[in-house]
Amino acid sequence: QVQLVESGGGLVQPGGSLKLACAASGFTFSHYSMSWYRQAPGKVRELVAAITAAGGSTTNYADSVKGRFTISRDNAKSTLYLQMNSLKLEDTAVYYCSVRVFSRLYWGQGTQVTVSS
């Protein structure tokens, strides 16, 4: 079955960096677009970044993270990444990776990112 396992979250100071990873299994990773979402306390889950399947690898980002975050994928390792630089207090959230396979949306368990001084 489809499994998504995020890692790499933690506590970081404003201006710092973190790199999240999402290990995928149970589907042909290279064939599917992948996304990162986040959910801050008391807020709705929002799309952070997305990347198309292998061959295209077009990316798009939420306006709030453009120029600071970079989404990438390693199809050989079935792993999705999110490089986060110049982190701000408002980036604090649980970050989830996501994939839609056969019209069903799958989520990982999430990884907590806390930006605090």
Summarize the structure.
0% of the residues lie in helices and 52% in strands. The protein is built from no helices and eleven strands.
Q: What is the chain-wise order of helices and strands?
A: EEEEEEEEEEE
Describe the sheet with the most strands: 7 strands, mixed
H/I helix tally = 0
According to DSSP, the number of beta strands is 11
**Low-pLDDT runs:** none
Q: How confident overall, as mean pLDDT?
A: 96
Portion of residues within helices? under 10%
Percent strand equals over 45%
Radius of gyration: 13 Å
- How would the global form be characterised? globular
Tell me the span between the first and last alpha carbons: 40 Å
Walkthrough of the structure:
The protein has strands spanning 3-7, 10-12, 18-25, 34-39, 46-51, 59-61, 69-74, 79-84, 93-101, 104-107, 111-115. It is an all-beta fold. Strand 4 (34-39) and strand 5 form a beta hairpin. 28% of the residues are buried. The model has no long low-confidence stretch (mean pLDDT 96).
